[in-house]
Request: fold
Amino acid sequence: MLNGFPNIRHMRVFIEAADSGSVSVAAKRCHLSQPAATQAISRLEEYLHSPLLVRRRDQFSLTPSGAAFKRRAGQALLHLENSARSALRTSGENNKRQTTFDRSITAAQLRNLIAIANAGSFSVAARNLGLSQPTIHRAARSLEEIAGIPLFTASPSGIMLTKAAETLVLGAKLAQAEIRQGMEEISRELGEDRGTFVLGSLPLARTTIVPQAVHAMVESAPRLQVRVVDGRYPELLRSLREGDIDCLIGALRYPLSADDVEQKLLFRDALAIVAHPSHPLANKRNPTLKETLNYPWIAPPKETPAGQYLFNTLHIQELDQTPVRVVSSSMILLRGLLSQGNYISVVSRHQIGVDERLGTITALDIPLEGHIRDIGLTYRIGWRPTETQQRFIEFLKKFSATSSS
Reply:
């Protein structure tokens, strides 16, 4: 993707021309001369490396690339408008400024705002963008001047965003994600099918589902790049909501952790009490959960579904002396520790499928109750995947079904 945003005014002129079929009408609506409006559309086409409008008889109509980009550009501008208004409402600013704020923001200001939010510092943001610190600082202050509200406050560790600025950043990132998808749809129309899919992956899906889906996608779309982002659920959910990742695969949460996301069930998975095959309980018939308490436990973090089961259902924390010696959700660490000593853990049965076949982890013969978990995909509400992205989602569904059978 080019560096984040095309010129916002150019996008507005293009949308008005597409809606009206007339550049002169678009110029009037955007308070520009007709030559300026024509130049704005030409500049946008240069930026996107594709024609967007074509004259047919006495009016303009959209090219296939133009139709694809118009949908995304319109949604991007709506994100900016809504976030600008929400930012002003958050600060208690009156309604008069709401009609001009989002139309006064520039692409450069949004690019800089996102960089500052990600870096937490003017100097680090400047370095990341290849600009001088005074340039970043001036852009930040000019954005505050346009908004008429404070957006940044100094802190001992750098720069903090006000609540209004956080709202504006969210809209800017979502707009940026829409534009990225629009540009990828243009590349598909041009026969290049270049693009990206950014998948947030929780531990369970990393073992087989994601590798199989990624390999199938690479084979079917050689120019698509798949980025897999590992992390804990709260961080991945935030990245999803901000548009930094496209969707999230892993254990579903009930109730939903945010009102702007939705979940889709793929399959149901069971938990198991596990140990190394050489563990004293590994070959014992009908071992009991009580017996496992004589050995050191590796517990998943309490906020994970497996951790919640351990603490809320098995009540392991209520014992006089907890057997938990290590807390981690890392499969790499789990494998290593189980091979080192007589450790016990609770983990997804699907997650250890490969390890069971390799003989490095075994599930103990201990029945559990109420341990079935829903595994699926989490999206932003209203998110529309490109055709290429949808193909990858279908691969995720296919290999999820295979893994659960």
